[in-house]
């Protein structure tokens, strides 16, 4: 069996048979790069920029002349030291993160942060407020019950998580240590367009931004802690990014495992133990890519255009397709919708896959269809989906 991959740089050609393994190197111009023929609408792990994948491919076998793969180099070595420092520097540039904040590259997914946040910001008897707008903020509030006294001060459950409350509706707890939100609910497709302020002046705002991280500019100064799994907009699964105000470090509960103590990671520049080196490397390439695209202001405009094309098609379908989310809080990242004739949904998803549009099935908890259109989803992918939607509707009057 032989495999060849095309890119703009010198790559490795691998040939396998039952008794031998050999390689030879060659170069192919960028014009020869082939489209993979698939638009991946998965909620995560999600599509990555093509240029990032090709760059990683070109450096995979021998990273910048080191004689080692990026997956083999020591996290204590000079090569990886340069990688993680550049990743942090570029992320600080993208989000205008001041030195008042530490940037941590951690493991365990955003779900681990459901525990780490209360363990670092509260004592067991302390209160914390949670605004529950969907599946992930539900999980965060439930996990916090183990480590503090969380109060669900607003929940969209009765309305099936289709809207976000007006901030003046929220009866905040006066002595709450923090106010927690999920910036974008991947399952239900609701997104905060603005952010609440904690009523308690000594309290802080905490946000799970896993599914809209680096999709638009954010005023970091409004927050005490932001955390995000990388596998939506900025890399493959395996690393979670935490941005925390330095003044909040060093107050973890005594029972906090060292791996959940933010100070342990801040003091060691995210190298307390072996970090997910390859994932951080990919994040670094993505941050560089985002800067070259014009930064997050430019990305937000692209994301607004893509989402607008898709929502317009849904709204213009005469309720053949239905978005249940209040228009003012529709997500730019995750677009869940249903077909008025639910018996057609399975056929819709199967036929779309045959046309090269995959991972459109809605989350198991809600069903329907979901198109995740993160940073790396090109406008052409959304336009192809919309064309398919119109054709499918025409064939099922």
From TrEMBL:
Pfam family, one: Aminotran_5
The reaction(s) this protein catalyses: 4-(phosphooxy)-L-threonine + 2-oxoglutarate = (R)-3-hydroxy-2-oxo-4-phosphooxybutanoate + L-glutamate; O-phospho-L-serine + 2-oxoglutarate = 3-phosphooxypyruvate + L-glutamate
Pathway: Amino-acid biosynthesis; L-serine biosynthesis; L-serine from 3-phospho-D-glycerate: step 2/3
UniProt GO BP: L-serine biosynthetic process
Residue span, Aminotransferase class V domain: 38-385
Cofactors named for this entry: pyridoxal 5'-phosphate
EC number: 2.6.1.52
InterPro entries, sorted: Aminotrans_V_dom, Aminotrans_V_PyrdxlP_BS, Pser_aminoTfrase, PyrdxlP-dep_Trfase, PyrdxlP-dep_Trfase_major, PyrdxlP-dep_Trfase_small
Coiled-coil zones: none
Classification via SUPFAM superfamilies: PLP-dependent transferases
Keywords from the named record: Amino-acid biosynthesis, Aminotransferase, Pyridoxal phosphate, Serine biosynthesis, Transferase
GO molecular function, one term: pyridoxal phosphate binding
A cellular component annotation (GO) from this entry: chloroplast stroma
Family: Belongs to the class-V pyridoxal-phosphate-dependent aminotransferase family. SerC subfamily.
UniProt name for this protein: Phosphoserine aminotransferase
Organism from which the protein derives: Dendrobium catenatum
């Amino acid at each position: 069996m032989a495999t060849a991959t095309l890119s703009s740089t010198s790559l490795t050609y691998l040939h396998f048979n039952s008794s031998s393994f050999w390689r030879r190197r060659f170069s192919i111009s960028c014009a020869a790069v082939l489209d993979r023929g698939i638009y991946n609408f998965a909620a995560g792990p999600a599509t990555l920029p093509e240029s990032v994948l090709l760059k990683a491919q070109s450096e995979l076998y021998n990273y910048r002349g080191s004689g080692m793969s990026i997956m083999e180099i020591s996290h204590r070595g000079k090569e990886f030291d340069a990688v993680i420092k550049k990743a942090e520097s570029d992320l600080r540039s993208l989000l205008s993160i001041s030195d008042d904040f530490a940037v941590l590259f951690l493991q365990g997914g955003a779900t681990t942060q459901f525990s780490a946040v209360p363990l670092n910001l509260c004592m067991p008897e302390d209160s914390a407020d949670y605004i529950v707008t969907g599946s992930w903020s539900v999980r965060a509030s439930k996990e916090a019950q183990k480590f503090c006294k969380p109060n669900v001060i607003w929940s969209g459950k009765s309305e099936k998580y289709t809207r976000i409350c007006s901030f003046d509706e929220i009866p905040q707890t006066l002595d709450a240590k923090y106010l927690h939100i999920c910036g974008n609910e991947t399952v239900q497709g609701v997104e905060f367009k603005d952010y609440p302020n904690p009523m308690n002046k000594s309290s802080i705002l905490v946000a799970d931004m896993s599914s809209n991280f680096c999709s638009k500019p954010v005023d970091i100064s409004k927050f005490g802690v932001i955390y995000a799994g990388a596998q939506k907009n900025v890399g493959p699964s395996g690393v979670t990014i935490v941005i925390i105000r330095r003044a909040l470090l060093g107050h973890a509960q005594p029972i906090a495992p060292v791996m959940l103590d933010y100070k342990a990671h801040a003091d060691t520049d995210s190298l307390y133990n072996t970090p997910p080196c390859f994932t951080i490397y990919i994040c670094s390439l993505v941050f560089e890519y985002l800067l070259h695209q014009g930064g997050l202001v430019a990305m937000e405009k692209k994301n607004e255009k893509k989402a607008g094309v898709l929502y317009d098609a849904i709204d213009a379908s005469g309720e053949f397709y239905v978005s249940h989310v209040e228009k003012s809080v529709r997500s730019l990242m995750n677009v869940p919708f249903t077909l008025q004739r639910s018996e057609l949904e399975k056929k819709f998803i199967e036929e779309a896959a045959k046309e090269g549009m995959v991972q459109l099935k809605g989350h198991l908890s809600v069903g329907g269809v979901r198109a995740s259109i993160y940073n790396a989803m090109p406008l052409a992918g959304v336009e192809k989906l919309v064309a398919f939607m119109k054709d499918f509707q025409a064939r099922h009057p």
